[in-house]
Each structure stands twice: as structure tokens, then as C-alpha cells.
């Protein structure tokens, strides 16, 4: 579970073409890094997969199911953002449980499920704290738990490490990779860092100016012959 296929996917903003006719297959269980310079269309591609952005043309298949016109919650994807986007007035456990509120799960079950997710990211001891009482890395773990509570097949991460200091970045990189392996989910991670992609990805996709320039294992792409 978690195979992603993009077929002739395009996105235009007015007269500006941000993503041009891209074809891409990401096998289930991959750690895929989307790379490229600022403005090349990485975030737009990720947001279209998440359903946060309408496509101009083309199709998105998840687990061989066409999800192009489905709302975000019906796709089996979950997105984690750069700035974590936690609710400041809610405790960690409530932030995580919030993801289930819309699905009509009762309060006790939401809480139990949120504690499970916090345990997955080693944040059980901080369950009752507010986001402001946590470090950047800890907030990021909570944001990840919130993304995972909906049991996605595909986790979408937009520059998840860029707000962290270099030491934490390397620590969280390890944790992300570990979690992805343990859960066996597909991760699609937008980054502008080759080093990050090299450390994390088993599939790297390099975009430039709205098209896919290169794809393959990071060793094949980044190591000179
Ligand atoms: P990246 O994530 O690679 O930095 P983006 O996907 O954010 O690139 O943007 C791709 C191109 O589309 C850029 O030229 C950007 O300015 C443009 N773009 C992105 N979002 C919008 C938007 N909401 N309205 C207009 N143009 C946009
Ligand atoms: P990123 O590089 O991570 O995509 P940006 O700073 O480019 O982040 O974009 C942040 C937000 O601004 C996004 O929601 C994007 O859609 C919007 N945006 C980006 N470029 C433009 C643009 N040229 N016009 C309008 N909105 C834009």
C-alpha cells in the first residue's frame, strides 16, 4: 500500500506553468525526496498529491485508484508542514487527536489513539504540554504524530527539517527514516538539500522549471562517475 502514480500532471497559475506534464511512479514503501531549486514546482506537486491544490491537467493515482478529484481526507495521504502548524492553545495530545475529530471518532478513542501516536514518536511524557513548551524537534514529532493518526498510506512532508538547527536536523532525519521503515509507509519529502536526500531517500526526483529532470537512487544521481 502507498503506491503513487502521476500521469501527465500539470498546474498553471494564470499564465504561469508551475508543473508541466510530469509522469512519475513511486513504488509503495519508498522514501522519495523531491528536489530542485526554489520555484521549480516541488511544493505545488506535493500539494496536488495531498489534494490541497486542484490540478490543471492530468491524473493522480494512489494504490491504483484515481484520486484526482477527491478531497484530501479521502485520499489516504497526510501532510506535514515546515512550521508544524500546531494549534497553540491545545495540548500535544489534543493537537494529535484533532485529526480524528472530523471523522466522528468518540473522545475516549481519539485520546487513546493520540497517545499511541505520541508513543510512536517518543512524546508520551509531553502529552499534556502546550506547543510553546516544546523544542522545535519536539513540536515536529507532535506534528508527525498528528499526520499519522489518520492512518495514511502516503505521508507528504514539505521541507520538514528546514526550521531546525543543524544538529537537530540530523537527529530528526534519522527519526523520520526510522519511522518510515518501521511503518512501511510511502514518504514523499520535499527538500532543496542534496545531502538530506542522500541520507534519506531510496528514490530521488530532481525537478527543474516544472519538469522532472532526473530520477533514481540518490547514489546514481549525485555521485559523479
Ligand atoms: P518550489 O516548491 O519548488 O519552491 P512551488 O511549487 O512553490 O516551487 O512554485 C512553483 C512556481 O509556481 C513558482 O514560480 C511559484 O512562484 C508559482 N506559484 C506557486 N504557488 C502559486 C500561487 N498560489 N499562485 C501563483 N503562483 C504560484
Ligand atoms: P515553497 O518554496 O516552500 O513552495 P513559497 O514561499 O514559494 O514556499 O510559497 C508559499 C505560499 O505562497 C504557497 O501557498 C504558494 O502557493 C504561495 N505562492 C508562491 N508563489 C506565489 C506567487 N507567485 N503568487 C502567489 N502565491 C504564491
From TrEMBL:
This protein's record includes keyword S-adenosyl-L-methionine: no
Protein name per the record: ABC-type spermidine/putrescine transport system, ATPase component
Cellular component aspect of the GO annotation: ATP-binding cassette (ABC) transporter complex
Keyword annotations of the record: ATP-binding, Nucleotide-binding, Transport
Signal peptide: none
Domain ABC transporter: start-end pairs: 4-225
Range within the parent protein: 2 to 226 of 339
A molecular function (GO) term: ATP binding
Keyword Cytoplasm: no
Amino acid at each position: 500500500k502507498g503506491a503513487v502514480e502521476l500521469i501527465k500532471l500539470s498546474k498553471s497559475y494564470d499564465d504561469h506553468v508551475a508543473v508541466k506534464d510530469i509522469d512519475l511512479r513511486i513504488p509503495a514503501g519508498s522514501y522519495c525526496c523531491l528536489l530542485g531549486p526554489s520555484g521549480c514546482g516541488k511544493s505545488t506537486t506535493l500539494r496536488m498529491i495531498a489534494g490541497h491544490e486542484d490540478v490543471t491537467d492530468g491524473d493522480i493515482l494512489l494504490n491504483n485508484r484515481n484520486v484526482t478529484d477527491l478531497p484530501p481526507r479521502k485520499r489516504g495521504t497526510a501532510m506535514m508542514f515546515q512550521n508544524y502548524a500546531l494549534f497553540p492553545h491545545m495540548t500535544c495530545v489534543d493537537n494529535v487527536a484533532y485529526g480524528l475529530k472530523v471523522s466522528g471518532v468518540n473522545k475516549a478513542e481519539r485520546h487513546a489513539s493520540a497517545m499511541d501516536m505520541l508513543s510512536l514518536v517518543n512524546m508520551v511524557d509531553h502529552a499534556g504540554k502546550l506547543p510553546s513548551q516544546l523544542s522545535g524537534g519536539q513540536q515536529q514529532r507532535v506534528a508527525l504524530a498528528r499526520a499519522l493518526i489518520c492512518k495514511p498510506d502516503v505521508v507528504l512532508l514539505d521541507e520538514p527539517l528546514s526550521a531546525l538547527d543543524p544538529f537537530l536536523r540530523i537527529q530528526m532525519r534519522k527519526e523520520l527514516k526510522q519511522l518510515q521503515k518501521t511503518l512501511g509507509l510511502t514518504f514523499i519529502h520535499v527538500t532543496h538539500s542534496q545531502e538530506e536526500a542522500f541520507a534519506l531517500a531510496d528514490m530521488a526526483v530532481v525537478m527543474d522549471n516544472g519538469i522532472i529532470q532526473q530520477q533514481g537512487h540518490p547514489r546514481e544521481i549525485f555521485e559523479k562517475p
